[in-house]
Design brief:
The chain contains 2 helices and no strands. By secondary structure, the chain is mostly helical. The radius of gyration is 12 Å and the shape is elongated. The relative contact order is 0.26.
Amino acid sequence: MSFAKILQVMGIILALNALYFGIAKDSMKTEISLLFLGVMVFYVGRIFEKGK
């Protein structure tokens, strides 16, 4: 598994974790920040994958 794929999986996990924080913990600020971070990590992985 390449580094780019690992970054993409980490981004998806962060996004799912953000949704959990929004639903279960009712913390909108944490949800938005984790969702933004997850999307950015996912797209960095996409950019690394296209660079090959």
